[in-house]
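stage 2 :: seqdesign
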């Protein structure tokens, strides 16, 4: 079977997630994992402790733990924005066409 004859993995995976009714949950978890990882990497690169990050965000260390927890998808955009600013980054959110 040639490359052109095969269905792209993305299409079949999309279909699988949709058929299982878990596509949105999987996407939310994946997005949060990436954001948490990026924030923690930026924090470490800035040599910023979690306590110092909390101070820069004007919040508690437990809130920072929630932001950096890849499993916690219930974090507001405001908190993510403050976290990004605390580590010298800027949060960018965009809408893309979807199905």
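stage 2 :: out
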């Amino acid at each position: 079977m040639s490359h052109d004859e095969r269905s792209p993995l993305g299409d079949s995976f999309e279909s699988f997630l949709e058929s299982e009714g878990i596509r949105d949950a999987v996407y939310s978890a994946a997005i949060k994992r990436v954001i948490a990882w990026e924030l923690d990497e930026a924090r470490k690169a800035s040599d910023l402790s979690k306590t110092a990050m909390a101070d820069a965000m004007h919040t508690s260390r437990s809130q920072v733990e929630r932001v950096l927890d890849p499993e916690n998808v219930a974090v507001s955009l405001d908190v993510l924005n403050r976290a990004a600013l605390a580590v010298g980054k800027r949060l960018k959110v965009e809408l893309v066409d979807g199905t």
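stage 3 :: structure notes
- Residues 14 and 98 are 11 Å apart (CA to CA).
- The helical segments are 9-20, 23-45, 50-57, 61-68, 77-86.
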